[in-house]
Amino acid sequence: MPANLTSSPLVTEQPCGAGGTQAAAPTAVAVDLGSSAVGVWATHRGTVSGPSGDAYASAGTLVRRGRIVDIEGCAALLSQLIRRYREPVPEGGVVAACRPVSSSEADQTVIRRVLDAVFAPSRIVFIDTVRAAAIGSGAAAGSLLIADLGAQLTEIALLQDGHVFAARRAEIGTRDLVRGATVDLIVDVVARHIADMRGSTDPSTMNAAFTRGMLLVGDGAVHPELPMALSTTLRLRVHRAASPRTAALNGAGLAAMSLLRHPTQS
Hints:
GO terms for molecular function: ATP binding. By secondary structure, this protein is of the alpha/beta class. Helix content is about 30%, strand content about 25%. The strands form 3 sheets. A 6-stranded mixed sheet has the order 1-8-7-2-3-4. Helix 3 (about 130-135) crosses helix 7.
């Protein structure tokens, strides 16, 4: 199993209903717990989303800089969101959860606690947000440089055929622009991390990615100045994803469906 896609052990199988009736068919679910918004996607149900805190607060109230800080609050928000579905999400499905690059085991344990409480899944898989966004944007093949400029967290990664080759993260995002940070500061952070990766990775892979240009997702992709500022400073083309705010959730949904169809896939 790749390092950027991990799985929790299987839990007990769901029993049949009364009178021997088969339980509901397993469902593929994707979850993206962002610092400004939380999104859920489920097969045959679509996407629901909601804010994960005050957009103008100095710190996230549920998720802060990519880390859950309120377990009960996150579980309550997810439960509220899935109640919007006309059909309930049955227990025992497969949940693919986006995680920021370089997330710790402790970070993943907290995410797992929330997902277990809300979905009671048979399997939880973690997929790096940048990888999910590349898949969701249909750009995972080949060498790809991708930047996810979120509300409170910036992630930059070099992918090779959909797998994370090198990655960096910085605790800065678009929400910091309303509290004194500048576009130039965010651009400089991205440029510095790319230069660091360029000095420590295979030159041919990075050169191929630079020739292709950088894929931009997250809140930063819809900012009026950031894409052009990044392109000018980095001297490469910057491609905004078609659905920058939901690209990661879409990719996680595709991963969940694949794992549901092929349960032994690693």
